[in-house]
Amino acid sequence: MRSIFLLLLALSFAVCSCGGSSEASGEASTATETPTATESTSNEASAPEPAEMTRQSAPPATGPFEEKLTEGTVSFIVESPNSSSNYFTLNTEGMSVRNEETKMEINGAVVRAQLADLNQDSYPEVYIFTRTDDGTKEVYAFASYRNRSYGQIYMAEAENTANQRGREGVETFELTETALLRKFSTPQNGQRNGNPQMITYALKKGETSYRLEPVE
Which residue ranges are recorded for the region named Disordered (predicted)? Predict the structure, then answer.
């Protein structure tokens, strides 16, 4: 009888031990399948951020331009941001009557500013050179009115139609002591840079302003 009781007690202990082991195993399996809060936060932090949707403008080809040019008691200050929608401002110092700002919208970037006295009257002019993406240059000019104020110089078109016809080449400008040289080329045998041409401009005083007149 005692032997039977001990046998039943041993069997009961064995059954209880198996049940506990199975339950522990199930808990371990559940813990493996469910990510912890730390793991979830780590995954969110490492996820790539969405790409930026706003397309930014390309940077300008050249940086901002700023130059102060002085002749005697008069100064010309040229500034340009050289941004995608570009412009320049021109200010003066030392004019006896009027110093005011001029602002002009332009194509291309300001690359150079230079003083000259093409008509040799002892009062300076300022020439502002710009360049487009294809290398073509333009010039904007302003003259001192006896150092009292200043105004824009207008460029007359050359009357020589041979120089004007079919002009498609890249234009450049060059200042000498007494003239502004406008250089370009006309197509020749299908080539854009074929026949070189040049127009020479002299500074003339009109009724109300100065003009750059072509010298034929």
Answer: 22-66
Hey, what are 216's tokens?
A: 């034929």
Closest CA to 80 of 99, 67, 61: 67
112 residue type, one letter = R
- Extended beta strands in the chain, E state: 65-71, 74-80, 87-93, 102-105, 109-116, 125-131, 137-145, 149-155, 172-175, 180-188, 191-205, 210-215
Residue type, 178: T
State pTM to two decimals: 0.67
User: Alpha carbon of 191 to those of 46, 78, 142, 154, 167: distances in Å?
Assistant: 57, 37, 35, 31, 12
pLDDT in tens, 80-121: 999 989 999 999 999 999 999 999 999 999 999 999 999 999
